[in-house]
Design brief:
Elements: H1 10-34, H2 40-62, H3 71-95, H4 98-117, H5 126-144, H6 155-182, H7 187-202, H8 220-248, H9 250-253, H10 256-272, H11 278-295
Helix pairs in contact: 1-8, 1-10, 2-3, 2-7, 2-8, 3-6, 3-7, 4-5, 4-6, 4-10, 5-10, 5-11, 6-8, 10-11
Length: 310
């Protein structure tokens, strides 16, 4: 079997990226349901509190140490990704249609990450740029293919779009900073420590809303949404996301975001029985082609099987 990266088979990479794509796609539906009854900061805090509890259990079971000596970059990653991205994205979902969020976030994260990653000496080749462009077009086609054209753009919607873009940039910064840590530290330990710090950062913000007095009144549906966000879209998705960053670098790890709109089509078909439109299927193929371009090794970068001349 041909391998693109040492010690990692292609089927494993495909399975990991597909799983994370589905997990991330689920977060927008769960967030929309949860935010219908719960304030954004309280829901965010519960999300990461649930995820942190599971991560601590896994860290203890696997004896994965927390990167305490790298507390500065871990704190920065938590501030950008767990506090910044989650807060801005959830506030944006309140103001803009889910279709806007699903278009802006998956396309902005990989491009912004690739640009930030140049600061930590990850090469931004012309092939990568072309692949990012192709995948971005594909993601736009997937979302636009299922939307009605002609909707008015209000100031509220524009503000929501700006918040979503700012959240995507925060997540890109988180991935870039995290790449410096997970090169030498345990992925489980990093995600556990960052999640604990993120929960601690989000907790005080809940007192700006209802001070958590409303938690006993949350419906079962709201708690189910919080559980999906914590278990599926954080515990599962983040471990895979940062594993990808540790193995392939920040820019290639961020490609998982492109798969979220494609995974959303699968979820809608399996769970809701909604058949994807032909244009959406075309967009999904374009996304996968763009991801393939970014991840493909050039002939110069591939190890040669031919022995060197003596």
């Amino acid at each position: 079997m041909r391998r693109y990266y040492p010690g990692v088979s292609q089927p494993l990479v495909v399975l990991a990226y597909a799983t994370a794509g589905v997990a991330l796609a689920a977060q927008w539906t769960a967030a929309k349901i949860g935010l219908g009854a719960a304030p954004p900061f309280e829901l965010s805090t519960m999300r990461f509190a649930i995820a942190s509890a599971l991560l601590v259990v896994v860290a203890l079971a696997t004896r994965s140490p927390l990167p305490l000596r790298r507390w500065r970059p871990v704190t920065a990653a938590a501030a950008f990704g767990f506090l910044g991205f989650n807060s801005l994205a959830f506030l944006g979902v309140h103001l803009t249609p889910a279709s806007d969020s699903a278009l802006i976030v998956p396309t902005a994260i990989p491009v912004a990450t690739a640009l930030f990653a140049t600061l930590i000496h990850e090469r931004l080749t012309s092939q990568k740029l072309f692949g990012f462009a192709v995948a971005s077009v594909g993601a736009a086609v997937v979302i636009a293919g299922g939307q009605q054209i002609g909707a008015d753009l209000s100031t509220t919607r524009l503000l929501g779009d700006v918040l979503e873009l700012a959240g995507a940039i925060c997540w890109a910064a988180c991935l870039t900073v995290s790449a410096l840590v997970v090169r030498t530290e345990s992925v489980v330990g990093f995600v556990t420590m960052a999640s604990l710090l993120g929960t601690a950062m989000l907790f005080p913000l809940g007192f700006l809303e209802q001070s958590y007095r409303d938690l006993p009144t949350w419906s079962g549906q709201t708690w189910l949404a919080a559980g999906i966000l914590g278990v599926v879209s954080t515990f599962v998705a983040f471990l895979i996301f940062f594993w990808a960053v540790s193995r392939f670098g920040a820019s290639r790890g961020a490609l998982i975001s492109y798969l979220a709109p494609v995974a959303a089509l699968l979820i809608a078909f399996v769970v809701l029985g909604e058949r994807p439109l032909p244009l959406q299927l075309v967009g999904a193929v374009i996304v996968l082609a763009g991801v393939r371009l970014v991840t493909r090794k050039t002939p110069a970068a591939m190890p040669s099987a031919r022995p060197a001349p003596a």
